[in-house]
């Protein structure tokens, strides 16, 4: 592949990760609003112990979604550091690493993305496979789950 094709691939992977995180943010915000509305409704319709229990449950749901929102925002900030136009020969944040076991985009933990006929797994540099790939170059190998894996390309 020539350089522009590699850059385009990285841009597409970055955009897929950004879209997934934007959906997480939207979902978490909506869920927080719904939990708050439920707490407000409960406040109007009940009193006593049932009110206190329902209010606490709504607050727990809201807190859980607030935590998910913060995590998604943190991952969006991490994605903003990636410069897809920079091609590298050593695996770093924003690199695509092709191996004998699969293709990886070192960014954030996320679902697999299919571009063209190939599948790419978005992984965090702190994940077990991400740590093994980090700083590796084309032609190097490593062992993961008792399998020797060859790096066939890094960009």
H/E element string? HHEEEEHEE
- The assigned structural class equals alpha+beta
Rg for CA atoms = 21 Å
Number of strands: 6
Coarse morphology: elongated
Query: Strand order across the biggest sheet?
Result: 3-4-2-1-6-5
List segments where confidence is low: pLDDT < 50 over at least 5 consecutive residues: none
- What portion of residues belong to β-strands? 15-25%
Number of helices: 3
Percentage of residues in helical conformation = 40-55%
- Report, as a whole number of angstroms, the end-to-end distance: 11 Å
Q: Report the average pLDDT across residues.
A: 91
Q: Largest sheet, if any? A: 6 strands, mixed
Coiled coil: 10-45
Protein name: 3-oxoacyl-ACP synthase
Organism: Rhodocytophaga aerolata
Keywords: Coiled coil
Write structural notes for this entry.
The protein has helices spanning 3-45, 49-80, 128-133, and strands at residues 96-99, 103-106, 112-115, 118-123, 141-144, 147-154. It is α+β, with helices and mostly antiparallel strands. It has a 6-stranded mixed β-sheet with strand order 3-4-2-1-6-5. The model has no long low-confidence stretch (mean pLDDT 91). This is 3-oxoacyl-ACP synthase. Keywords: Coiled coil.
Could you name the key traits of this structure?
alpha+beta; six-stranded mixed β-sheet; 3-oxoacyl-ACP synthase; coiled coil
């Amino acid at each position: 592949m020539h350089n522009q094709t590699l850059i385009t691939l990285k841009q597409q992977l970055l955009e897929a990760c950004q879209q997934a995180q934007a959906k997480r943010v939207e979902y978490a915000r909506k869920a927080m609003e719904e939990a708050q509305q439920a707490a407000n409704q409960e406040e109007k319709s009940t009193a006593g112990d049932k009110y206190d229990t329902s209010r606490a449950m709504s607050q727990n749901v809201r807190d859980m979604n607030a935590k998910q929102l913060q995590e998604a925002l943190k991952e969006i900030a991490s994605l903003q550091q990636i410069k897809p136009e920079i091609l590298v020969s050593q695996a770093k944040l924003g690199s695509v690493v092709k191996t004998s076991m699969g293709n990886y985009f070192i960014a954030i933990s996320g679902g697999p993305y299919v571009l063209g006929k190939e599948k790419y797994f978005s992984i965090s540099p702190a994940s077990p496979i991400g740590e093994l790939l980090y700083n590796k170059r084309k032609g190097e190998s490593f062992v993961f789950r008792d399998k020797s894996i060859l790096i066939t390309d890094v960009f």
